[in-house]
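User: Sequence in, structure out. Go.
Assistant: Echoing your sequence, followed by the structure tokens.
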Amino acid sequence: GSEMCIRDSTGGFALSGSGAECNVDNNIFWGNESTDFLISSLSCDLTNNDIGVLTGTTPASNSNPMSVDPGFVGGANYRLVPFSPLVNGGFVRPGNTNMPEFDLDGMPRIIGSAVDVGAYELDHIFIDGFEGATTGAWSSVAK
């Protein structure tokens, strides 16, 4: 069979084809105009994905589905903030040899106790958000 991945006309992601099986793990499909992820005619196993609006064919399985605001840094920056619920929230499928060794920034794909959901691993030095200028997380206690 054949499979095809395309960007959906509503801004999300569409996955379609026939006679194919696929695994979709550790992705964020969030905040698009209408549909975030559309599945058509595939036998898909979804694991640890954060999906705002899922439409189309029911996946063969959907393990640990999430539908939470991912906590992006903001603007066009799709990296996670230090307190995102998706940090260390991913899954490495046993026997998966297709997961890249590095994220989109060239950092190791797993930093911490597990892979992060999304395309970037969070490598933060200060847990209080200092490096991201998220002053709301800073303590007001002088030491």
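User: And one key feature?
Assistant: DSSP finds no helices and eleven strands in the chain.
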